[in-house]
Amino acid sequence: MQEKPVLIFDFDGTIADTFTPTMEILRVEYEKWGDYFHRRHTINQLRSLTIWQIIHTIPGGWWKFVYLLMRAKKHIHAHAHQIKAYPGIVYTLNTLYDQGYQMYIVTSNDVPSVQNFLRQYDLDTVFADIMPTKGLWRKAKTLKKLCRRYQIPIKSTLYFGDEIRDIQACQQIGMPVVSLTYGYNSQIGLERFKPDYLVKKPTQILTLLQNYPQKHQS
């Protein structure tokens, strides 16, 4: 019988819908930069790009991107009580927990904010640990650190994330990755980087795991 994989989840754009307020901030800023720019770089078009590609579209480049990132984080922190869970994710996580899956969170968000969110949805006992990354591009190192700490073989895991950089981090260390198309990056953008699995909504995670390790693209 196939042993259950250990499940590692991203947080923003995967469990919590921080995508909506972040995109609203970007939309307002992009409109300020002029009609032509706003028409050329729509939110849907940006969702298909990597972070580096997005940075190259922004007047001011890296420093403006950092400003926008900090502004979005500050807004999300100030309105944390308004952040919603994606439809179906609470049911999915509770079902996986009841089925005996060992689950973790690796996130660039701060741990207290994640804990508060999980308590709000009665998910605070579902995850064995929450491990923060230090910076946007250190997720691969954090995933390896988690596996070492809990003596988990990398090939015995599945990582669930919504961004292209999640795919890149997992491919860097040989970790199987499931891309979720409802978060920050679009299906078109995610497919270009060839994740192991692709799902369009949280409840499809249950179907994927029923068939795992059979290759299953939805």
For the structure shown, list the relevant keywords.
Rossmann fold; 2 domains; 11% strand; globular; alpha/beta; 218 residues; 6-stranded parallel sheet
Topology:
Blueprint: E1 6-9, H1 19-32, H2 35-40, H3 43-46, H4 51-57, H5 61-78, H6 89-98, E2 103-107, H7 111-120, E3 129-132, H8 139-149, E4 157-161, H9 164-173, E5 177-180, H10 187-191, E6 197-199, H11 204-211
Parallel strand pairs: 1-2, 1-4, 2-3, 4-5, 5-6
Helix pairs in contact: 1-5, 4-5, 8-9
The CATH homologous superfamily of the largest domain is called HAD superfamily/HAD-like
Q: Assembly state here?
A: single chain
Q: What is the second-level CATH architecture of the largest domain?
A: 3-Layer(aba) Sandwich
How many domain modules? Answer: 2
In short, what is this structure?
The chain is an alpha/beta fold. It contains 11 helices and 6 strands.
Description:
With 218 residues, the protein is of the alpha/beta class. It is built from eleven helices and six strands. The protein has two domains: 6-17 and 85-211, Rossmann fold (3-Layer(aba) Sandwich), CATH 3.40.50; 19-81. Strands 3-2-1-4-5-6 form a six-stranded parallel beta sheet, sandwiched between helices.
